[in-house]
Design brief:
The complex is a heterodimer of chains A (408) and B (519). Chain A is 41% helix and 18% strand. Chain A is an alpha/beta fold and 408 residues long. In chain B, the strands form eight sheets. Chain B has an eight-stranded mixed sheet. The longest helix of chain B has 17 residues. The chains are: A alpha/beta (408), B alpha/beta (519). The interface between A and B is medium-sized, with 26 and 24 residues.
Chain lengths: 408, 519
C-alpha cells in the first residue's frame, strides 16, 4: 500500500483530461483542492462526483488535489479510480459509470469494415467525437499507443468510454495488449459490448483460442449472451506463414489484418512507400482470409497529411483484394470510403447481376443467367455486396430498382 | 451604479443612461428610426494650414499637444494591425507624459497587445474604453475595475455612432503604413503594409483633429490616398508603427481539428444543398479557423460545379486571393486583410477592392453591402434554442471578444453559424445566451458536428434541404445530446449587480448589458 498516488494529466497543453493526487491521511476527513477550467459551470457537479467516488472507495481521510482541463465525467471517474488503484488498497473495486443505452447496439459478422480508426486508449479528447466522423469501426487501443506505465489508466478509461461514449453506429473495437497482459485487458472491456477484439502480433491459432476462452469465461460469469468477434493482426514472419491457421482458429474471427511496421522489422527490412517488401505477406493475408471466408483488411496508412497517397494506397489495397484499411486520423475516413466505393462500371455490372438473380427467383428458376452466361452464387453474393457498398458510399440511391435518382 | 434600467424589445434589462448620456433601448430589428441630421466636424480654413502642404510635426507628443489634447477628451485609434499595433499604447504613454486625465479611448478594436493600457486605466489617464475588449482588457472590464461602462459596437455600429453624433471624437490617431507630408495615406505599401485603412474612415471624416502616424513618409503625392490628406491636421513619423506579421493572429489560421473541419464541410454542403451555391453568388466568411476552412471547402465545390462568385467579402486571406486569381470570383470586396497575401493582392489587383464600414455595414446609410451577400458564415461563443447568439462573452460571463462586423453580417440572405456543440466540457448550445449580441430572427442555420439546425422561421431553407442527406435536426435535440455528454446543464456564472459594459445593436440602441463577474 502507498500513502499517495497520482493519475491523469495536467498542464496548459492538456484538453478534456484531468489529474488527481490522493494523499492518504489518518484524520481530518477529505480535503479537496479543486482547480478546473469549467469551475463556473460544473464546479459543484465535479466536487459531488469526486466525493461520491471517495465514499465508494471508502477513503475517509485524504488530501485530494484535482486539476481539470475540461474532462467529461467518464474521464474524471476513470482517473480517480486509477489513482485509487495505484494506492494499492486491498480489493481494488471498479467504479462504474452508467452503461448508456446508446452504447448497446449490436454489430454483424458481415458488416463493412472499410475504415477502422485507431484511438490511443489513454487519450480522452480523441474519443469523444470519434463517432461523428462515421468510421466503420473505432479501435480503442490498449497496446502500442499507450505508454507501459499508463496501461492501468488506459484500461479504466477505455472501459468507461465503452460505457459512456456514443460512437454513432461504428463497430466498437478494442486492441488488447499482447498475451498474457491482453487477457487481463479483457476483464475490463468484454462486459461492455465490445464487438471486435483485435489480437496484436498474432503468431498462432492457440493465441486466438486463449483469447476466445477468456472472453467466453467472462461472458459466462456475467451471464452475457452477446457475440464477440476477433480480428487477429499479423505482424511477423511466423504470423504470415501461419496466416490460414490463425484465420480459421475460431468461428468468431471476422477479419484478418496486417501490421507492416513490425512485420517489416521482423523480416529485417524497412517499410517503403512502394511496399515491394510486404507484397507477399499482404497477399498471404488476403488469400488466408478469403480461404477462411473472412474479410482481409490492410495495414494502417500513417501519413495523415498525404491524402492523395492515402487514396492511392487504398486503391492498391482494393486491387490486391483487401476490404478495408486502417487509419489514425478522422479526415482519412472519407478518403478511404470513397476509394473503396465501387466504380460506375462495377455498379452497372452488379445491378445487372442482382436484377437477373431477382428475376430468376421470381420466376422460380434455380439457375441465374445473364445473357448466355451462367452466374454462380458467389458472384451474386459479391454483386449484392457491391450494391450495398454503392448505396453506403452515396453512389447509388437506395431505391435504385425503382429508377431513383442519385443524390450523392 | 446604474439606476435607470428598462426591459428592451429582446426582453433584456438595459440602462437608459450610458456614460452619462441617454441611450435608447433596443426596439427590434429595423424598428428604430432616428431623426435629425448627422454630426459634422468644425469648419476650418486653409489659411491655418501650411501652404506647402507639409504638416509633419516632430513627434506624437507634440502632435497631441498642438491638437489641443485635454482632460476628458475622446481619442480614437484603429486595429488595422490587429495584435501587431504599436501606436495606441504610445498615444496614451504620451498623454500620460503630457499629464491629461480621464480620456475615453475609442478604438475600432483592441487586442491583447494593448494590455499596457491597463496601467493608464489604473492611473486615471484613461477613464474608460468604448470598443471591443479582448484578453487582458476584457478581464479588467469584467472584474468591474473600469470607471465608465464599456460600450461594444459592431464595425458598422461604430461608424453609425460617429456619424450620428453619438460619439464625438476629439482626436483621431491613424497609423498609416505609407503617408506623405500632407497626410494622404494608405495601407498598401511600406514596411508595415497592412492592406487598407477602412476602419479610420469615419474618424477622418468626423473627428475634430486627425493625426496620421507613419513609418514610411513619401514625397507628395502618396498614391493611392485611402485617407485624404484634406482631413488631416498633423503628420508624425516614427520608427515602427506595427508588426504586420501579427495581423495573422490566432483567429485567422485554418483549423486542423478534424471536428471543426467536419463542421466547415457540413456548412459548405448545406450551402450547396440549399441551392445558394450557384453561378454569380456571393459569400463572406469571417475570421476564425472553422469559417476559413468553410471557404476552402466551398472553393472545391465551386470548381467541381464549374461556377464562380460575383464577389466575395473579406477579411481577405491567401485562400480568397487564390480564388480571385484562379477566376473563381470576379471581385473581393475587402474590409480588412487577414494575411500578407491579402495585402499583396489588394496592392496589385484592381479587382481586390478596399471597402469601409460605411459601404459595407453602416445601418444608418442608404443601404449597405451586408444585406446583399447571399451567405455568410460566422462564429459564436453561445447560441440558444431560439437561435439568439452571443459573440462577446463566454459562458462564465467573462468579456473576451469584440463584435467586429458580426452583427452587421447577420443581415445577409443566409446567416450560418458553424460552431462546435460544446467546447471541452462547455455546451455552446444553451437555454439562454449569457449576452445577447444577435437576435435569433436573423440567424438562419446552426451547423454543429452533431447536426444542422435550421431556424423554423426559414421554411424555405427547410424545404430546400429536406430531401438531402444532411444531418438536419431540431436545435433543442442537439442541446439535449450535448447536455448528456457534458454531464448535465451548466450552472450559471455568479454575476454581480453591477453592469460593466453594454452591447449596442447596429442602429445604436442598447441590446444587452454585461455584468461584473464575481470571484
Amino acid at each position: 500500500m502507498n500513502l499517495a498516488a497520482e493519475a491523469g494529466r495536467k498542464g496548459a497543453e492538456v484538453r478534456s483530461d484531468c489529474w488527481f493526487r490522493i494523499a492518504l491521511t489518518s484524520s481530518g476527513g477529505i480535503q479537496l483542492n479543486l482547480n478546473s477550467k469549467v469551475k463556473t459551470m460544473y464546479g459543484s457537479a465535479i466536487e459531488a462526483l469526486i466525493r461520491e467516488g471517495l465514499t465508494y472507495f471508502q477513503i475517509d481521510h485524504a488530501i485530494v488535489e484535482f486539476e481539470d482541463s475540461g474532462a467529461l465525467p467518464f474521464t474524471i471517474m476513470a482517473r480517480l479510480e486509477t489513482a485509487v488503484r495505484r494506492l494499492g488498497l486491498e480489493q481494488p473495486k471498479q467504479w462504474l459509470p452508467e452503461f448508456k443505452p446508446f452504447c448497446q447496439y449490436p454489430t454483424s459478422r458481415e458488416r463493412f469494415r472499410r475504415s477502422r480508426l485507431y484511438l490511443p486508449g489513454n487519450e480522452p479528447k480523441f474519443m469523444i467525437n470519434a463517432g461523428i466522423h462515421k468510421p466503420d469501426g473505432i479501435i480503442l487501443d490498449l497496446e502500442d499507443s499507450v505508454a507501459p506505465q499508463e496501461k492501468d489508466a488506459a484500461q479504466t478509461l477505455v472501459r468507461n468510454a465503452l460505457m459512456q461514449i456514443d460512437f454513432y453506429g461504428a463497430e466498437r473495437m478494442v486492441r488488447i495488449n499482447q498475451l498474457p497482459r491482453g487477457l487481463d485487458d479483457l476483464i475490463f472491456v468484454i462486459p461492455y459490448n465490445v464487438h471486435v477484439i483485435l489480437i496484436p502480433k498474432c503468431e498462432s491459432g492457440d493465441q486466438v483460442k486463449a483469447v476466445e476462452q477468456q472472453v467466453e469465461r467472462i461472458l459466462a460469469e456475467r451471464g452475457l449472451k452477446q457475440e464477440v468477434y476477433y480480428m487477429p493482426i499479423i505482424e511477423s514472419a511466423l504470423g504470415a506463414i501461419r496466416a490460414y491457421e490463425i484465420a480459421t482458429a475460431s468461428p468468431n474471427i471476422v477479419a484478418l489484418t496486417i501490421g507492416l511496421e513490425d512485420y517489416t522489422a521482423d523480416i529485417g527490412t524497412q517499410r517503403t512507400l512502394e511496399g515491394r517488401e510486404s507484397f507477399w505477406a499482404r497477399s498471404q493475408v488476403v488469400n488466408a482470409a478469403r480461404a477462411a471466408g473472412i474479410q482481409p483488411i490492410d495495414t494502417v496508412f500513417s501519413d495523415v497529411a498525404d491524402m492523395e497517397g492515402l487514396r492511392q494506397s487504398v486503391l492498391e489495397a482494393k486491387a490486391l483484394g483487401f476490404d478495408g484499411k486502417g487509419c489514425i486520423h478522422p479526415r482519412q475516413i472519407p478518403v478511404i470510403h470513397e476509394a473503396f466505393a465501387p466504380s460506375p462500371e462495377e455498379i452497372e455490372k452488379a445491378k445487372k447481376i442482382v436484377m437477373a438473380f431477382e428475376s430468376a427467383q421470381q420466376n422460380g428458376l434455380g439457375v441465374v443467367a445473364l445473357g448466355s452466361k451462367m452466374i454462380d452464387p458467389p458472384v451474386v453474393k459479391r454483386a449484392q455486396r457491391t450494391i450495398r457498398l454503392a448505396i453506403d458510399s452515396g453512389k447509388l440511391p437506395e431505391n435504385w430498382q425503382e429508377g431513383g435518382e442519385n443524390h450523392g | 451604479m446604474v439606476k435607470n434600467m428598462v426591459k428592451n424589445a429582446a426582453g433584456r434589462l438595459v440602462p437608459t443612461i450610458v456614460n452619462d448620456k441617454p441611450a435608447i433601448p433596443y426596439q427590434g430589428v429595423g424598428k428604430y428610426r432616428p431623426g435629425g441630421n448627422k454630426a459634422a466636424p468644425p469648419i476650418v480654413s486653409c489659411a491655418d494650414y501650411p501652404a506647402d502642404g507639409n504638416k509633419v510635426v516632430p513627434d506624437l507628443k507634440t502632435a497631441l499637444i498642438i491638437a489641443g489634447i485635454k482632460d476628458g477628451m475622446t481619442i480614437s485609434t484603429h486595429h488595422h494591425f490587429r495584435n501587431g499595433d504599436l501606436v495606441a499604447n504610445q498615444v496614451f504613454d504620451a498623454a500620460a507624459e503630457i499629464g491629461v486625465r480621464d480620456l475615453m479611448w475609442f478604438p475600432s478594436a483592441s487586442f491583447p497587445c494593448h494590455a499596457p493600457i491597463i496601467k493608464h486605466l489604473d492611473s486615471g489617464v484613461v477613464h474608460h474604453i468604448e470598443g471591443s475588449m479582448n484578453g487582458p482588457l476584457g478581464d479588467y472590464c469584467s472584474a468591474g475595475k473600469m470607471r465608465g461602462l464599456g460600450v461594444l459596437r459592431s464595425h458598422g455600429g461604430r461608424y453609425q455612432a460617429i456619424q450620428d453624433g453619438e460619439v464625438h471624437i476629439d482626436i483621431a490617431v491613424i497609423a498609416a503604413p505609407t503617408a506623405d507630408p500632407f497626410g494622404n495615406a494608405n495601407g498598401l505599401t511600406g514596411p508595415s503594409a497592412c492592406g487598407l485603412l477602412g476602419f479610420a474612415l469615419a474618424d477622418a471624416q468626423y473627428a475634430d483633429k486627425v493625426i496620421v502616424v507613419t513609418d514610411n513618409l513619401v514625397e507628395f503625392p502618396c498614391i493611392p490616398w485611402q485617407i485624404h490628406g484634406n482631413y488631416v491636421d498633423h503628420v508624425v513619423v516614427m520608427d515602427k508603427i506595427g508588426e504586420p506579421e501579427k495581423i495573422v493572429s490566432g483567429t485567422t489560421e485554418i483549423t486542423r481539428s478534424p471536428d471543426r473541419l467536419l463542421i466547415a464541410e457540413l456548412a459548405a454542403k448545406f450551402v450547396k444543398e440549399a441551392g445558394i451555391l450557384r453561378d454569380g453568388f456571393s459569400f463572406q466568411a469571417g475570421a476564425g479557423g472553422t469559417t476559413l476552412a468553410f471557404a476552402i471547402f466551398l472553393k472545391e465545390m465551386m470548381k467541381e460545379m464549374g461556377i464562380k462568385a460575383r464577389f466575395v467579402r473579406g477579411g481577405s486571406n491567401q485562400h480568397l486571393v487564390q480564388m480571385l486569381e484562379e477566376g473563381l470570383t470576379d471581385y473581393i470586396l475587402d474590409g480588412q486583410t487577414f494575411d500578407l497575401e491579402g495585402v499583396r493582392s489588394m496592392r496589385e489587383n484592381p479587382r481586390h477592392v478596399n471597402t469601409s464600414p460605411f459601404t459595407s455595414y453602416n445601418y444608418h446609410g442608404k443601404g449597405n453591402f451586408a444585406s446583399m451577400v447571399d451567405v455568410v458564415v460566422l462564429g459564436a461563443t453561445e447560441v440558444d434554442v431560439n437561435f439568439n447568439a452571443n459573440v462577446v462573452t463566454h459562458s462564465d460571463g467573462r468579456l473576451l471578444h469584440g463584435i467586429g462586423g458580426w452583427q452587421n453580417c447577420l443581415f445577409s440572405k443566409c446567416t450560418i453559424l458553424p460552431i462546435p456543440s460544446f467546447r471541452d466540457r462547455i455546451p455552446v448550445i444553451v437555454d439562454e445566451v449569457t449576452t445577447l449580441c444577435g437576435p435569433g430572427e436573423l440567424i438562419d442555420v446552426v451547423v454543429t458536428e452533431r447536426g444542422i439546425a435550421i431556424n423554423p422561421l426559414r421554411q424555405d431553407l427547410i424545404e430546400a434541404t429536406k430531401n438531402s442527406s444532411l444531418p438536419i435536426r431540431p436545435i433543442d435535440e442537439i442541446k439535449k445530446e450535448v447536455e448528456e455528454i457534458c454531464g448535465g446543464k451548466p450552472a450559471k456564472p455568479k454575476l454581480g449587480d453591477k453592469i460593466v459594459a453594454v452591447v449596442k445593436w447596429v442602429d445604436g440602441t442598447v441590446l444587452d448589458s454585461i455584468y461584473q463577474v464575481l470571484d
